[in-house]
Design brief:
The complex is a heterodimer.
Chain A (H helix, E strand, L loop, with lengths): L1 H24 L1 E4 L1 H9 L6 E5 L13 E2 L8 E6 L5 E6 L12 E9 L2 E10 L1 H4 L13
Parallel strand pairs in A: 1-2, 5-7
Antiparallel strand pairs in A: 2-6, 3-4, 4-5, 6-7
Chain B lengths: L3 H28 L9 H30 L6 H6 L6 H8 L3 H22 L4 H17 L4 E3 L2 E3 L7 H4 L5 H4 L18 H30 L6 H29 L10 H26 L3 H23 L17 H22 L5 E2 L8 H23 L1 H10 L6 E2 L4 H27 L5 H28 L6 H26 L6 H21 L2 E2 L22 E4 L4 E3 L2 E10 L8 E2 L3 E3 L5 E4 L3 E3 L2 E4 L4 E3 L4 E10 L5 E4 L2 E5 L6 E5 L1 E4 L3 E9 L13 E5 L4 E4 L2 E10 L13 E10 L4 E4 L2 E5 L2 E5 L1 E3 L4 E9 L4 E8 L4 E10 L1 H28 L13 E2 L3
Antiparallel strand pairs in B: 1-2, 3-32, 5-31, 6-31, 7-8, 8-9, 8-15, 10-11, 11-14, 12-13, 15-16, 15-17, 17-18, 19-20, 20-31, 21-30, 22-23, 23-24, 24-25, 24-26, 26-27, 28-29, 29-30
Helix pairs in contact in B: 1-2, 1-6, 2-4, 2-5, 4-9, 5-6, 5-9, 6-9, 9-10, 9-12, 10-11, 10-20, 11-12, 11-14, 12-13, 14-16, 16-18, 16-19, 17-18, 18-19, 19-20
The chains are: A alpha/beta, B alpha+beta.
């Protein structure tokens, strides 16, 4: 039965390796404060930040900067986290199409030289999940 | 308003639910306390009857739901939210399973068919297997019963009325019988033929995992601990094949329709199918090990049961809302989490309990496995598959850990890896290496008597060739200026060895006169898939890098990937060996092959109807004459991009698509790629931005220019000649009447590619002057003929200009992606062949094992 034991130990070792490696790769949800602190400590690991877009009285998001004629790969915006800390975010990709309407924005990336370099943006749009209004039908007019 | 069909549907759901419970109980009673094959006939009759009633009720539910969709009954929420008047019939089918309820229904439907299949093919097992089946059906149907009992909502009915769903709409107060005129339409991404066949395939695969599971449960229950393997294998084979094909179909759909730049994104919803498939394939190996070599039965039990539990877990993961913002797939949370957990918990406890209870009685082989026994290596392969599945499971479940910790009151903030693709790839790559090596080794050893000498003889050629091929490949990759990392070398070597060894096995078998082996073929397919994944994903190259030479000094410069380029209409731009030109916007016109330029289509108030401004001809055949009404599909705009290969001069055209999507938060656009397939690579292109096609163009304030015939002028930087003034021809959309005076100017504008004739109109009717401006979209020019001075022969033109049309584009090259698709086909073929061979063998008489089958002693360990 010795060989079986070796086999079992090998499996356990690999499984432990998988768990360790996943733990090492797993990211965390943080606030901008902590993201800045990490950068100050020289920790360049990527984090998740959840935030909202600051909006004006007409409910338009403010501070979006995207001019495809100048650079289609440069999109900058300001994001406010749950502790009301605002942070400039740069995303080196075209502006996601339904960005303005998203309720919540989840970004992944890290702080670099004072801006948050996002390499991934996940938008949470209210109507994507449950359609609560009758948009697209002619109810509103009547 | 038609409430009848919904009532029939709802009633049928309830009948199906009750009948499933009756069937489960009756089948349970039929076989309770009896040996397998000995049943209480009257209970069995009742069970069978109840199952048929259940099946008929399910068919009725399917019929009612389809009727609601087909007849556009928007008083029902399901039709309203997933369909619309303009939805083509073929997509009404995908509309059926666009919602959670419909996809549950599809799953239930398949299991009804499979239940009947078990009744027909496995009569001896009918009672216990169908008892399990009916219990599963009862749980599944409960997800769509939509009954509120004592404040507790059970299931979500597909027959819910719109007014029951959107209760706070003011219109119900004035008109409770209000029916919307149109639905909100099917998610544009689902309007794709793959979405017609991919979900049924996947759910058939899911349903098929139930069959071996039900056999395993029946075997444990009836203490027929070995007899179940033989009938379960064909079902597991079909399941493995169908689920595998379903997974790859989903990948292909994502590749063709989504725009994340590949076919696999390690999204939790993808993983939720990938994990049970890996374990199912592992379990299949366990079953075959027992059937052929009398070893590995416990493994087979454990894996068959795990597969089914993983399917339940996947269902929980994707439909309970626990993934939250971790997934781009948007399955609505219907508040079924509790129900789904009970479903998961019930069968987990039942199955694990039974397995533990009988564990000691399950026979094991006493034969000591040596390094020369193929069983050992098949077993190692099974383990590799399971470890691979475990890895994906462990990471995918991260949102579940957070939810669970939150549930017990501890706040955690663990997130999925920031770069998921890199995380999964680096670990799954090693599973690929293991599978590549073991698929070859296992197949070679399986078919021969093994000792040091025979093994060396059998393996040497493929090992040497694989080493040689790998060396060559490394040199080639380097020669092309790319790098290859050690893990990639390992995967290539393993994959190539897998291909060669399996080819060798097929060749040896053919020489021995044995018909084509399905197993070897499937393993060959898998090895090819590994190579295809390595090449197409590992060496996917972005070819749309910014090569304009301009560098925008912003926060950072060099180390950021700038993967998108901006192309102005009709201005050629160089890009990685190609010359690219964005050549305008096109519409899809039903009945006309290819796409039709928007410039020849005059928009009307009805979005779906346009007037042809010129004859629409394709390949010499006339489809529409000038002035005809042309039906278009307005939500899709196709952006024509012409590619010219600078080296070979070869040209091709791609039409990446953007869909206006009202559902995705206030109307963004959704981009879908267009792909040019070459034998050795794909060119994949999608739009990542464009001016909004639905917003009217921003025209500048018109500037007036006074011209005489023959004058030249610059319009928006284009040279133009005012050639003539002429009587207006019958022009589309104008409806000239007798007595009208209509003149048109003929202005020729010299664009980059061609000349444009612009014809602004000047019409006098009953002494009233009308002006119809003319536009050139390509150049961003609008011209109107404002006044005419007949004495002086002077004409005043109003000129407005607009921002030139542009697109932002991303293009990628995917080398050798065809290896992946052809490997999948071979794998599927291998599964099919194994099934056929199994059936013919069964008819031919007793099992004939492969050569030199080592006889294991069979002795249950007490």
């Amino acid at each position: 039965m010795k060989r079986t034991h070796i086999f079992v130990i090998a499996i356990i070792a690999v499984a432990a390796g998988i768990i360790l490696s996943t733990t090492a790769d797993a990211s965390v949800y943080v606030l901008f404060g902590e993201a800045r602190q990490r950068a100050a400590e020289g920790n360049a690991t990527k984090v998740h930040v959840v935030g909202r877009l600051p909006r004006d009285a007409q409910n338009h998001p403010v501070g979006l900067q995207y001019d495809p004629m100048v650079d289609p790969n440069y999109f900058a915006f300001t994001l406010v986290d749950s502790t009301h800390v605002a942070q400039r975010v740069v995303y080196n990709n075209p502006k996601p199409q339904d960005f303005e309407t998203s309720e919540q924005v989840v970004i992944t990336g890290a702080m670099r030289s004072g801006v948050f370099m996002a390499d991934n943006i996940l938008l949470k749009c209210p109507s994507k999940y449950v359609k609560k209004d009758l948009k697209g039908t002619e109810v509103a007019a009547k | 308003m038609n409430l009848l069909v919904g009532d029939i549907g709802h009633l049928s759901v309830i009948v199906a639910f009750v009948a499933a419970i009756v069937a489960a109980y009756a089948y349970f009673q039929a076989t309770r306390g009896r040996a397998l094959g000995d049943v209480d006939a009257s209970w069995q009759r009742l069970g069978r009857g109840a199952f048929f009633v259940h099946g008929a009720a399910v068919l009725a539910v399917v019929g009612c739901l389809f009727d609601i969709i087909y007849h556009h009954r928007y008083e029902y929420y399901y039709a309203w939210s997933h369909s619309s008047n303009h939805l083509p019939i073929k997509y009404m089918i995908s509309c059926f399973w666009a919602g959670q309820e419909g996809s549950f229904l599809l799953w239930i439907f398949w299991q009804v068919l499979l239940g009947v299949g078990v009744m027909v093919f496995n009569k001896r097992w009918e009672a216990p297997v169908l008892a399990v089946f009916s219990a599963v059906q009862a749980f599944l149907v409960s997800m769509i019963v939509g009954v509120v009992a004592g404040g507790l909502k059970i299931g979500s009915s597909p027959f819910m009325l719109l007014r029951e769903f959107l209760t706070d709409l003011p219109v119900w107060k004035t008109n409770p019988n209000f029916v919307p005129k149109d639905g909100t339409g099917l998610n544009a991404l689902l309007q794709n033929y793959w979405m017609v066949i991919h979900p049924p395939t996947l759910f058939l695969g899911f349903a098929l995992t139930l069959v071996p599971f039900a056999f395993a449960i029946a075997a444990l229950w009836k203490k027929e601990l070995t007899a179940w393997v033989k009938p379960a294998i064909p079902w597991a084979l079909v399941g493995g094949g169908v689920l595998g094909v379903g997974v790859v179909m989903g990948a292909y759909w994502a590749y063709e329709t989504l725009n994340f730049g590949g076919y696999w994104n390690w999204d939790p919803v993808e993983n939720a199918v990938y994990i049970p498939w890996l374990v199912l394939v592992a379990g299949l190996h366990g079953l075959v090990l027992w059937q052929r070599r009398r070893t590995g039965l416990r493994t087979a039990y454990a894996l068959v049961i795990t597969t089914f539990i993983l399917v339940l877990y996947a269902t929980f993961l994707t439909r309970s809302g626990v993934l939250g913002n971790a997934s781009v797939h948007s399955f609505t949370d219907l508040g079924l989490s509790g129900q789904l957990l009970i479903y998961l918990g019930f069968f987990t406890v039942l199955a694990v309990g039974l397995l533990v209870w009988r564990w000691k009685d399950i026979p094991v082989s006493e034969k000591e496995l040596t390094m020369y026994s193929p069983e050992l290596w098949v077993f190692v392969g099974t383990t590799v598959l399971c470890l691979g599945a475990f890895q994906v499971l462990f990471t995918t479940s991260i949102p579940v850990y957070n939810a669970f910790m939150g549930f017990v009151g501890i706040k955690t903030n663990v997130a999925l890896p920031a770069d998921q693709v890199a995380h999964y790839s680096k670990l799954q790559l090693w599973m690929g290496v293991g599978i590549g090596v073991l698929s070859g080794l296992g197949q070679v050893m399986w078919w021969q008597r093994n000792d040091k000498e025979t093994l060396l003889n059998a393996l040497t050629p493929s090992v040497l060739l694989a080493l040689l091929g790998t060396a060559l490949a490394v040199l080639l990759v380097r020669y092309n200026g790319l790098t290859i990392s050690p893990p990639f070398v390992a995967l290539f070597l393993a994959g190539l060895f897998g291909v060669l060894a399996n080819l060798g096995a097929l060749f040896t078998l053919a020489r021995r006169g044995i018909t084509l082996s399905g197993g070897a073929l499937a393993h060959l397919g898998v090895a090819l898939m590994l190579l295809g994944v390595l090449a197409s994903s590992g060496y996917s190259a972005i070819i749309s890098r910014n090569v304009s030479g301009l560098l925008y000094s912003r926060e950072f410069s060099e180390d950021i990937n700038r993967d998108n380029v901006l192309l102005y209409r009709n201005e050629a731009a160089p890009m990685h060996g190609y010359q690219l030109t964005y050549a305008g916007q096109y519409f899809e016109v039903p009945g006309v092959p290819g796409y039709v330029n928007k410039q020849v289509l005059f928009r009307t108030d009805d979005d779906y109807k346009t007037l042809a401004r010129a004859d629409i001809k394709v390949g010499g055949k006339l489809y529409y004459k000038m002035g005809d009404t042309v039906t278009v599909i307005p939500e899709n705009t196709y952006y024509r991009v012409d590619y010219t290969n600078k080296a070979s001069g070869e040209r091709f055209t791609l039409y990446p698509r953007a869909q206006v999507n009202e559902q995705m938060g206030g109307g963004g656009i959704l981009a879908s790629p267009d792909i040019k397939h070459f034998w050795d690579h794909d060119i994949y292109t999608h739009i990542s931005g464009a001016p909004d096609t639905r917003k009217d163009k921003q025209w500048s304030e018109p500037k007036e220019h006074v011209l005489s015939v023959g004058d030249t002028i610059f319009l928006n930087d284009y040279f133009a000649v005012f050639r003539a003034i002429e009587p207006a021809k019958e022009t589309v959309g104008l409806g000239l009447q007798k007595g009208d005076l209509a003149l048109q100017a003929d202005m020729v504008v010299y664009g980059e590619q061609r000349q444009y004739h612009v014809h602004p109109l000047f019409v006098v009717r009953n002494r009233l002057v009308g002006r119809v401006p003319d536009e050139v979209d390509d150049l961003g020019i609008r011209l109107s003929l404002n006044t005419i001075d007949p004495q002086k022969g002077k004409f005043t033109f109003g000129v407005s200009t607009a921002q030139k049309d542009y697109i932002i584009l991303k293009a990628m090259q995917k080398p050798f992606i065809n290896l992946l698709w052809s490997g999948t086909l071979l794998m599927a073929l291998g599964f099919g062949l194994s099934l056929r061979q199994r059936n013919t063998r069964r008819n031919a008489g007793p099992e004939v094992g492969p050569v030199a089958e080592p006889r294991a002693r069979l002795e249950p360990v007490a």
